[in-house]
Amino acid sequence: MGSKPAKRLPASAPDHRDAIATLLLVAREDPALRRQLLALLHAPALQRTSILNTALHEMELRGEPAAARAAFTVLASDAGAALALRALTA
Known about the structure:
By secondary structure, the protein is mainly alpha-helical. The chain is built from 5 helices and no strands. It has one domain (17-89). The protein is 70% helix and 0% strand.
């Protein structure tokens, strides 16, 4: 009684875990990308979101795959940014 079933993502919802994991692995190996991501992740939320929105729009215009863009969408949320920051500084 009183407990609700856990919400599940619809089957069509994309799973971005692989994309963000790949991005973070590459960033750990590429010092320039790592510096850029750390600067982005340390930015205030509003600034981070604005930068990411611009970058995502530019990526879409260049025709980059949705999977590549998906990794960056995760960084827009405070929780996603915090997790990525912990992964890059661990």
